[in-house]
Amino acid sequence: MIGVFPSNAGRVPPALTVAPLRPNEVHPRAVLYSMSDFAPLFRFKTFPARAVQALSGANEGDALGLGVAAIPGDVYRLARDAKPRRLTICEGPSGGQVVARGSDVGVPGEALTIADCHSLMGEAGEMVEVLVLRHDSAADGTLLHLLPLSPLKPGTEYELIGSSRATAPDRFADIASVSFYAGTHLTLASGAQRPVEELQVGDMLLTRDHGPRPIRWIGHQTRRAVGVGAPIRIAEGTLNAARDLRLSPHHRLFIWQRRDEIGTGRSEVLVKAELLVNGTTVTREEGGHIDSYQLVFDGNEIIFAEGIAVESLLVTADLRARLPAELTLAPETEDPFAAHKVEVDETDLSPLGDAAARLTRARRASRETD
Question: Is the confidence at residue 297, as pLDDT, over 80?
Answer without folding.
Answer: yes
